[in-house]
Amino acid sequence: MSSTASGTNATWRNWGGNVAARPAREVTPASVDELAEAVRRAAEDGLKVKAVGTGHSFTSIAATDGVLIRPQLLTGIRNIDRDNMTVTVEAGTPLKRLNLALAREGLSLTNMGDIMEQTVSGATSTGTHGTGRESASIAAQIKGLELVTADGSVLSCSEKGTEEERALFAAARIGLGALGIVTAITFAVEPIFLLTAREEPMPLDKVLADFDGLWAENEHFEFYWFPHTGSTNTKRNNRSAGPRQPVSQVSSWIEDEFLSNGVFQVAQWVGRAVPATIPAIAQVSSKALSPRTYTDIPYKVFTSPRRVRFVEMEYAVPREAVTETLRELKAMLDRSGLRVSFPVEVRTAPADDITLSTASGRDSAYIAVHMVKGTPYQGYFTAAERIFTAHEGRPHWGKVHTRDAEYFAGVYPRFGEFTALRDRLDPDRLFQNDYLRRVLGS
């Protein structure tokens, strides 16, 4: 099988519908060698190169008018090492396929985000995460990486290599597509386990008052607050000895499809047409989901379908600042006249050692604000961002934000380390685009 290149100049759009690009050509390599050749050819032709996964980023991080690399033929598991409990997987593999394949082998990642549509390289390169007291982002579970750099050479790195390789490993796990194109990732895995999920409504005041305790008592705690109400829906996931008690198909359809996707979609349409109805809809939405407890394998507990399309901004703030930040967000919404029909999602992550991880060097809490696709989100996001940045917030690399290199140099102590490595690996900025020019400087 050989790579396909098309010069059709078709328009590429992201999942959220807020980013579009017209690449000069698209290439779908079937091997690492073909990918390296595509990179060398692009350089000869004076074209920039970007790889794109499933387009789940809301920023233009993957957009290019040069060569768009689609990695869908670079999929599947290369190797399972049961002695070291690692799995090496091709970069274009969707997380969904990885989770299913691992489960068949009796294995699992330790933690994951709340959807699994993305490719492994797209998810890790942008810092995708779930929630966890001790377990961190997907990228923090990486043990080794392979990538094609600007001169077409293939580099491998891990935490065990030379000093140079370790510096590359620290940066490339969340590399933003700036250091090269990731071709394979080695993840730490563990024997598959069971999680018991406990979902229940709780007043916002109580969640904020008890946040430290809820965080400390649960391996994975998160909650959704419904703006214009004092209500939240909380979710606690903890390891369990079993037995497995999955959500029944009927209950799953009612809760996950009908309420979380179907009715929610209708509520979003009504709210978009008649914004004045949003506070009333929010009151009903916040009471629609009833308490439930279920036990299942990790990916069936961590992830859920998201069929209502939206645009999202998410910031990591120091964990100790989360309740104050949320109180400010609520006060802003109460006095603003904004009508927000999408819940605010709150999660946590422990500090990690990845150069540009949103949790780099500090215990973090994530606050995500959303607006349904097609509604004007700028007013809400601008006001929220003002609050997040006042707390030295770090925006998710794949979600809407307006920050630039000057700001990042202030909130990431190791920012200069990343840009110096980029200068060395991509001096001619083959992997540059408008987004990277803004966030990393030129």
Describe the protein's architecture and organization.
- The protein is an alpha+beta fold.
- Helix content is 33%, strand content 24%.
- The chain is built from 14 helices and 21 strands.
- β2 and β3 form a beta hairpin.
- α7 packs antiparallel against α8 (278-288) and α10 (322-336) packs antiparallel against α11 (378-390).
Can you lay out the helices and strands and say which pair or pack?
Elements (H helix, E strand, L loop, with lengths): L3 E3 L5 E2 L6 E2 L3 E4 L3 H13 L4 E3 L15 E3 L7 E5 L4 E5 L4 H10 L2 E2 L11 H6 L16 E7 L5 E5 L4 H10 L8 E8 L1 E2 L2 E10 H6 L1 H7 L2 E6 L5 E10 L8 H25 L4 H11 L3 E5 L1 H5 L7 E9 L3 H15 L7 E6 L14 E9 L5 H13 L3 E2 L9 H7 L3 H11 L8 H7 L2
Parallel strand pairs: 4-6, 5-6
Antiparallel strand pairs: 1-4, 2-3, 7-8, 8-12, 9-13, 10-11, 10-12, 14-16, 14-17, 15-16, 15-19, 18-20, 18-21, 19-20
Helix pairs in contact: 7-8, 10-11
Can you describe this structure in just a few lines?
This protein is of the alpha+beta class and 442 residues long.
What is the strand tally?
21
Structural class: alpha+beta
β-strand amount: 15-25%
Q: Largest beta sheet, briefly?
A: 8 strands, antiparallel
Discrete helix count = 14
Query: Unreliable segments (pLDDT under 50, ≥5 consecutive)?
Result: none
Strands side by side in the biggest sheet: 17-14-16-15-19-20-18-21
Shape: globular
Roughly what percent helix? 25-40%
Gap between N and C termini, in Å? 38 Å
The average pLDDT score comes to 92
Rg is 21 Å
